[in-house]
Amino acid sequence: MPLPGRSLTSILLRREGELLLFDCGEGTQVSLRRLNLRWKKISVIFISHTHADHVTGIPGILMLSSQVDRDDPLYIIGPPRIKEYVEASRRILDMYINYEIVVKEIFDETIVYKGSGYKVRSLPLKHSKPCMGFTVEEEMRPGIFLPENAASLGVPRGPLWSELQAGSSVKLDSGRLVKPGEVMGPKRKGRKFSFITDTSFVPGVSDFVKESDLLICEGMFGEDLLEDAKDKRHLTARQAATIARNASVKRLGLIHYSPRYTERELKKLLHQARELFPNSFLTRDLQTLTLPLHE
Distance (Å, rounded) from C-alpha 12 to C-alpha 111? Predict the structure, then answer.
């Protein structure tokens, strides 16, 4: 439940100006305004499951997006019944919508969305109703341009360098053909972001989020409430850390805490996670993180 200073679940990923929203708890539009973000740049809303605390912010986002000039469609991707929820909200609230909304329901492990230079995958989780985890994986990036190689091959500085960096071969005045591979370093790995919430412990999740630069994962309970976590099909902070450790992720951000924990008591969850995975942290409202490029 929302608490003062602790809003409901929502993660915003910004990549080269494009915005991807993961879950949309009540009041998400307020947070977007506080961050002064251009919400019309949201391309897709990915919904883990249709429990109220993860979807009740959608109507506000839909109506908010009608207040700006939006040409591109808004995609909403989630488990069964998300389409029914969106359509019922639009009908009952008599929404004014001046752009296209495309709703896609997903059921299994698959690629659910492809953007420019990245793809989003889904994984079925184990909760009290159909629930999905998501990863965003960038494609391999070109290697670093090596100017000394270009110079040694007789490629003059200027437009030809740009063409080589863009992946095109160039022909010199001498007739020689220079290929990008001769002046570029090895390709670099893209970044990976993963979002897992509202699920029992599923060992296969570690394979799904493997080598993520950032894993945002629920750590709802402390280990003393392990049985409660099992009954309610949620994760403990220690289980989240186990997933992160087994997956060799770089950073683990805990989210979706039980309201029984005060701000001071959240340190208990963090401590239990760090016992297994030291590079764990507590996520906070309006917190901003940067995922650096791989060199």
Answer: 19
Same domain, yes or no, for 226 and 272?
yes
pLDDT tens column, 209-243: 999 999 999 999 999 999 999 999 999 999 999 99
Pull the structure tokens for residue 164: 């080589």
Assign residue 56 the CATH number of its domain: 3.60.15.10
Short-list 204, 199, 202, 203, CA closest to 219: 199
Predicted confidence (pLDDT) per residue in 75-96, tens digit: 999 999 999 999 999 999 999 9
* 162 Cβ contact partners less than 8 Å away, ≥ 6 residues apart: none
Residues with a catalytic annotation lie at 53
Instruction: State whether 86 and 163 are in the same domain.
Output: no
* Domain end point (choices 90, 105, 120): 105
Q: Are residues 100 and 8 in the same domain?
A: yes
pTM: 0.90
